[in-house]
Specification:
- The chain has helices spanning about 10-30, 30-55.
- By secondary structure, the chain is mainly α.
- The chain is rod-shaped and about 85 Å long.
- It starts with 10 loop residues before the first helix and ends with a helix.
């Protein structure tokens, strides 16, 4: 006689909610860092463009 193991219902929904909450929390908490990172990338690419456009001595 074989018995099936029943998984608790709603486990995947709970896991999805926890993962989503964690991702949203990290995104909101990391937002100032993300803004600074984007500003730094903008300055970096701007400086590369400046070097490319500058005349060669």
């Amino acid at each position: 006689m074989t018995t099936r193991l029943r998984r608790p219902r709603g486990q995947s929904l709970v896991e999805y909610a926890v993962v989503t909450a964690a991702l949203m929390g990290f995104t909101v908490m990391g937002w100032p860092f993300l803004v600074q990172l984007l500003n730094a990338l903008q300055k970096y690419f701007g400086s590369i463009y400046y070097v490319i456009q500058s005349p060669i001595p």
